[in-house]
Design brief:
- By secondary structure, the protein is of the alpha+beta class.
- About 25% of the residues lie in helices and about 25% in strands.
- It has a six-stranded mixed sheet with strand order 1-2-3-6-4-5, with helices on one face.
């Protein structure tokens, strides 16, 4: 049985998807982009600011499911520009510590709302 996760501390799902789903003790998040959940506005086109907001949004969804980013098993990171890879690692170090989750970082041609970054996560629920 799957359990739908929803929190007002992360951007609301707009469309035919949920913020996250828990099934079999694992949380599967939808992709998070740098939208401020309080205002619904996209952050300015600054990679570091956007990346911090994405991690805050992911953390809020994880918390609503009873876990945290440190429980992450796998992150899928989508970047508009792989030149931001070093900045991504710097921001990630603010939210995660060893043992780190597995990760894919992929350059894509475009993201929703022209975001510079989007991340979805697979997280263990204790």
């Amino acid at each position: 049985m799957k359990k739908i996760i929803n929190t007002d501390k992360a951007p609301a799902a707009i469309g035919t998807y949920s913020q996250a789903v828990v099934h079999g003790g694992v949380l599967y998040t939808s992709g998070q982009i740098p939208i401020d959940p309080k205002t619904g506005d996209m952050l300015p086109a600054d990679f570091t600011q956007q990346a911090h907001q994405v991690f805050k949004n992911l953390a809020a969804v994880a918390e609503a499911a009873g876990c945290g980013l440190q429980d992450a098993i796998k992150l899928n990171v989508y970047l508009q520009d792989l030149e931001d890879f070093a900045k991504l690692n710097a921001v990630m170090s603010d939210y995660l510590s060893e043992p780190f989750p597995a990760r894919a970082a992929i350059e894509v041609s475009r993201l929703p709302k022209d975001s510079l970054i989007e991340i979805d996560a697979i997280i263990a629920v204790p």
